[in-house]
Hints:
Elements: H1 8-19, H2 26-37, H3 43-55, E1 59-63, E2 76-80, H4 82-101
Antiparallel strand pairs: 1-2
Amino acid sequence: xxxxxxxxxxxxxxxxxxxxxxxxxxxxxxxxxxxxxxxxxxxxxxxxxxxxxxxxxxxxxxxxxxxxxxxxxxxxxxxxxxxxxxxxxxxxxxxxxxxxxxxxxxx
Length: 107
């Protein structure tokens, strides 16, 4: 398995999966990231991050039900795992510690 550190984009994807409470899928993640960050993101970038997160065991996935809107196709739904939640908590703690060390700068 690759390293378990979270990259910046992986962290964003994992956060969106977490707040989606088991209802996250590629396009919904893409739309949330674009809306919140103003970044343009491709579906393949989202899926690549999801594959890496699944490999690290930070997310799990299952096939959802078919829908008429998707022409009867199913979509893969993602959920955050306990390991994924812990990885987010660790990343947050590190960031908060570093922000706490930031001196007050007078620009």
